[in-house]
Amino acid sequence: MEESSFISISNWSEDDKPREKLMLKGKDVLSDAELIAILIGSGSKNESAVDLSKRILSSVDNNLNALGKLSITQLIGFKGIGEAKAISILAATELGRRRRAEDVVDLIKITSSKVVFEIMQPIIGELPHEEFWVVFLNNSNKVISKSQLSKGGITGTLVDVRLVFKMALETGATSLILCHNHPSGSLIPSEQDKEITKKLKLAGESLDIKVLDHIIIIETGYYSFLDEGIF
Questions:
Q1: Which residues of 105-131 are buried (b: 16+ CB within 10 A; e: fewer)?
Q2: pLDDT level of residue 231 (50, 70, 90 thresholds)
Q3: H/E/C letters for each residue in the chain?
Q4: I need a labelling partner for 188 at 20 to 30 A (CA). Which of 8, 15, 28, 144 fits?
Q5: β-strands 210-217, 175-181: how paired?
C-alpha cells in the first residue's frame, strides 16, 4: 500500500500553520482558505483543514459572497464539515456582510480645543470625581479612540505614563491629547497637572508621539494648556 503523503497541520512548520502564520505575519497574508481553516479548526484523517477549505471554496468558484449564500445543509454536504463547523463559517460570512453594509463613519478631526471639549464634556464634565482620559489621533489629527486612563477621588487621580504610550502604540496613534475634569469647577491647573503634562510630553518625544494639548474640563467650560501658551 502506498504511504500517504498527507502531513497534518500539527506537523507543519510554524510559518505554514494558519493560526501561527496569523500571529507571526498578520491576518492580511493569509489566503481565504487559510482563514476558513482557522474557523473550522480541523479537517479529516486524509485532508487538512486548509485543503478542505480550498475544496469548499472551489465549489463556489472561490467567491466569498457565494460562500455566504450556502446553507448549513449544503455545507454539511462536504465531508469533514459538521453542523458546528458549518455554523462557524456562516457566522463569519454574515459578520463580513454586516460589516460591508454598515455606513463608513468619518473619524472626527480635531481642529481646535473646543472640538475636544465637545467630545469629552458629555463624558467627564459633570462627574463628581476626577477622571483622566487620553484622546488618540492619527496623522491627520482624526480621533482613533479615546480611553479612560484612571479614575480617582475628587482630590486627584493617578496617571501611568507607560500605559499611555502602550495604548498609543497599540492603536497606531501618532499624537494624543490629554483630558481630565475638575469636579471642583475650577479651571486653574494644579502644579500636579503641569508636572504630569511635562512628563508625558517629554516621554512622547522619545517615541515620536506628540502630546498636542492637555485640556481641563468642567460642566460649563474648559482650559487648554495649548491655548493658554503654557504647553
A1: eeebebeebebbbebbbeebbeeeebb
A2: confident
A3: CCCCCCCCHHHCCCCCCHHHHHHHHCHHHCCHHHHHHHHHCCCECCECHHHHHHHHHHHCCCCHHHHHCCCHHHHHCCCCCCHHHHHHHHHHHHHHHHHHHCCCCCCCECCCHHHHHHHHHHHHCCCCCCEEEEEEECCCCEEEEEEEEEECECCECCCCHHHHHHHHHHHCCCEEEEEEECCCCCCCCCHHHHHHHHHHHHHHHHHCCEEEEEEEECCCCEEECCCCCCC
A4: 144
A5: parallel
Strand-by-strand arrangement of the 210-217 sheet? 143-151, 131-137, 175-181, 210-217, 222-224
Extract the C-alpha cell encoding 214: 492637555
Average pLDDT, the chain: 87
d(CA 32, CA 35): 5
Tell me the residue type at 184.
S
| Residue that is written with C-alpha cell 502506498 in the block | 2
Decide: 68 and 18 in contact? Cβ < 8 Å.
no
**The C-alpha cell that represents 47 in the structure block:** 485532508
Q: Is 31 exposed, middle or buried (0-12, 13-18, 19+ CB in 10 A)?
A: middle
Q: What is the pLDDT of residues 21-34, one digit of tens each?
A: 888 888 888 999 99
Show the cell assigned to 127: 462627574
State pTM to two decimals: 0.57
Q: How many residues would you count in the chain?
A: 231
